[in-house]
């Protein structure tokens, strides 16, 4: 299998695949990207070992199943390729256009997009029937859900195969048509956005907002800490897409989100968001 893009999500997905015994060709745009992606995988698998989820030999075997490259041409033999590059339709279309020429006609094209339409991505390839979404959740090695997103032209057998594949990875797949936010984000992001508005209107401190949802509702993280984990730029894209599709004010991104993004406060990945990280 191929994984393209080794940011937080791509590296996590490569880990999930390799953990299940799948050989992975992992593609990044340049050597720095490969270096960063390898770093994500090493760090995450170290945590798996220290948490008793993997032994040292298992970790070595997992890491050995991943071959890193900066060349898409090395994906010529893969059965399925998962794209997890930044959320830009042109960039994704360009990658899949190249893959159309490199891979065989039966190779399944998967996108991990959370804010773009799988239909839009699919119709720009030469094989829309073989294009499907597989939306993993952050952190991908830990969270079980995978949303399998079918379009009106995805071949039913492709959906069946991808659902079976997700199960083989130890995930819990759910199938959804191509709507903005799919299932989980459509339900989650109104709540997250509302929390930003409460914070921006100074109803409560960030700590009290987060504590309310953790200790009152049993959520593993409060909404502002979760936004820092997701990345404020990613959250903005998801909200904006849903708002444009539904015009539901619940999803109109809170102004503070945009201000923080402009100031470079994207969350954990930049060391600062609602909270500060080492
Ligand atoms: N592989 C397997 N297991 C691993 C691991 C790895 N690489 N790294 C850590 N673990 C295990 C740990 O051993 C630990 O196991 P136990 O619970 O059995 O001890 C467990 O995973 C949790 O790890 P940590 O102790 O490091 O972390 P934590 O307990 O503080 O939990 C968290 C952190 C998993 C992030 C948790 O707070 C959580 O689930 N938060 C909510 C995250 C969430 O909602 N994500 C969805 C965001 S929306 C999205 O992603 C969609 C999108 O499109 C943006």
From TrEMBL:
Residues 181-277 form the 3-hydroxyacyl-CoA dehydrogenase C-terminal domain. Residues 2-178 form the 3-hydroxyacyl-CoA dehydrogenase NAD binding domain. The chain holds residues 1 to 278 of 584 of the full protein. It comes from Amycolatopsis keratiniphila. Belongs to the 3-hydroxyacyl-CoA dehydrogenase family. This is 3-hydroxybutyryl-CoA dehydrogenase. It comes from the Bacteria.
